[in-house]
Specification:
The chain is an alpha/beta fold. The protein has 2 domains: 186 residues, D-Maltodextrin-Binding Protein, domain 2, CATH 3.40.190.150; 119 residues, Periplasmic binding protein-like II (D-Maltodextrin-Binding Protein, domain 2). It has 13 helices and 11 strands. It starts with a helix and ends in a 6-residue tail after the last helix. This is Tripartite-type tricarboxylate transporter receptor subunit TctC.
């Protein structure tokens, strides 16, 4: 038995902590990786988080966009980064809970390669229709699904990406309503919403933040939201569960991770800073326009949340007949 192995591990951890302390003293910027382009909701949350962390840590925080492949490029970059506290990753649920069940070789293992720091926001999705295309649909979702079956070209529902939570939601809604619905994948929420507003597709499922300006302008109408409760901003919009549709209770989220092997003292420091930022009125107000809410738990709770979400989306993908690619 090698009795010195624990001592070597402790020594390595101390060296990394000393290196991180030296980097902080020298003003080395903290990199915050984001797996999506500038301007999207995850990027906006990251930039607001960076402002708060910079103030709490007394250290420059630089957002680094590594866009592509549903966040896989940024996730792989985190895996390759030194665990010295100089690189963090703001991921959404798609990257850490859906990509692992829809991609055969994502190039990372969340449980082995990442150290959870904490949840940052919860991000509900909603089903929106174009009233000019579908009519008033006073009866809501039930009327809409009946309308989709009454003529050609009506059953298409836009989703922000293939193999995404909204694509699986289309399948769940169709089965529950006994309707044949077709998910039409886009490259993100922005082009999806533009096509729904323009009437190219009658409806779409996307992040509430992307839909919000058009709902307030009367160009889109929300029929349902996912998650366990209605949105405070839209108290008249029911959840899927209230409409008798089960399986869409899971809500998307963003969360903060460090490379596996990052010293525990640094992880505690980052979690404490994150908790203060997320609890601040400034952060909550800045992200309110995105239709998201701040929410922070312990690192252990984040690990459990990721695994629970992964199992949910694994089941939804299987029920939808989605084959990992």
């Amino acid at each position: 038995m090698n009795f010195f192995h624990p001592l070597r591990s402790l020594a390595c951890g101390l060296l990394l902590l000393l290196a991180a302390t030296a980097a902080l003293a020298q003003g080395t910027p903290l990199r915050l990786l984001v797996g999506f382009p500038p301007g999207g909701s995850t990027d906006v949350i990251a930039r607001q988080l960076a402002l708060g962390l910079q103030q709490e840590l007394g250290r420059s925080v630089v957002v680094e966009n590594r866009a592509g492949a549903g966040g896989q490029i940024a996730a792989q970059a985190l895996k390759a980064a030194r665990p010295d506290g100089n690189t963090l990753f703001l991921s959404n649920a798609h990257t850490v809970a859906i990509v692992p069940v829809t991609v055969l070789n994502p190039g990372f293992d969340v449980a082995k390669d990442f150290a959870p720091i904490g949840l940052v926001t919860v991000n509900p999705d909603a089903l929106a229709v174009n009233p000019a295309v579908t009519g008033p649909l006073a009866g809501g979702l039930k009327d809409f699904t009946a309308w989709t079956q009454a003529g050609p070209g009506r059953a298409s529902i836009g989703v922000p990406a293939p193999g995404s939570a909204p694509e699986f939601a289309v399948s769940v809604i169709g089965r529950a309503a006994g309707a044949r619905l077709t998910a039409v994948p886009y490259r993100g929420d922005a082009p999806l919403v533009q096509d729904v507003v323009a009437g190219q597709v009658p409806a779409g499922i996307g992040g509430v933040g992307a839909l919000l300006p058009y709902v307030e302008a009367g160009k889109l109408r929300l029929l349902a939201v996912n998650g366990p409760a209605r949105l405070p901003r839209f108290p008249d919009v029911p959840t899927y569960a209230e409409l008798g549709i089960k399986g869409l209770e899971e809500v998307m989220f963003t969360a903060l991770f460090a490379p596996a092997g990052t010293p525990a003292a640094l992880l505690r420091q980052y979690h404490a800073a994150l908790a203060k930022v997320a609890a601040s009125a400034a952060f909550s107000e800045r992200i309110a326009s995105l239709g998201v809410s701040a929410s922070v738990g312990t690192p252990e709770e984040l690990g459990q949340r990721v695994e629970r979400s992964r199992l949910v989306y694994e089941r939804l993908a299987r029920e939808a007949g989605f084959q990992p690619q």
